[in-house]
Structure formats: C-alpha cells, structure tokens
Amino acid sequence: MSDTKVLGIAAQHNAILLTEDKDFGKLVIRLKFKHSGILLIRLEGMKSYDKTNLFLKTINQHKENMRQNFSVLTSRNLRIRQLNP
Fold it and tell me: Who contacts 1 (Cβ-Cβ below 8 Å, separation ≥6)?
C-alpha cells in the first residue's frame, strides 16, 4: 500500500499516524497532504520494553498536542512541529 493511501486512511479516521518512515514528513510538510497528525518514531538502539514504555508515556501525555502536527520521538525528546492547516 502506498504512503499516500496510508496517510489518507489515517486522515479519514482522524487518527495520528505512527511511523518509522521519514517519507511521511515530506508528504505533510512539503507537499501539504491532508493528515490528522504524524508521529515519527526514531528509537534506534533501545530495547523493545524501553521503546514501548517511552512510546506509551509520550502518547498519553502529548496526544492532543500532536494532532494536526508533525512530531518526532527520540530517546532524548519529543519535537512537535506545528503545521498550518
């Protein structure tokens, strides 16, 4: 399935798209594709247990701020780039 199709499905369901694929950033930032929010997960080198804990904590604390924005989660921080609709 293409990235644009995946992005469209997430937008139809008003869902934040969780991905490890940086190409989604290009689609929403440069090409202005419609979306409900993107969370790019960049947690290389972490144990699965630690990734899961950090991911769940981040979602629970910041999900509303991530809506309609492009966010990047690393082991050090969460960056939220506000995008104009």
Answer: none
Secondary structure element (H or E) that encloses residue 76, with its range: none
* Tokens describing residue 33: 């594709």
Counting as low any pLDDT under 70, the low residues of the chain are 84-85
The count of residues in the chain is: 85
Q: Which amino acid is present at 85? A: P
pTM for this entry: 0.90
Q: What are φ and ψ of residue 65, in 5° steps?
A: -70, -25
Closest to 62 in 3D by CA, of 16, 12, 8: 16
The Cα–Cα gap between 49 and 33 comes to: 33
Cα–Cα nearest to 35, from 62, 21, 5, 14: 14
C-alpha separations of 55 from 16, 30, 45, 51, 84 in Å: 13, 26, 14, 6, 25
User: What strands lie across the sheet with 69-74, from one edge to the other?
Assistant: 17-19, 38-42, 69-74, 78-82
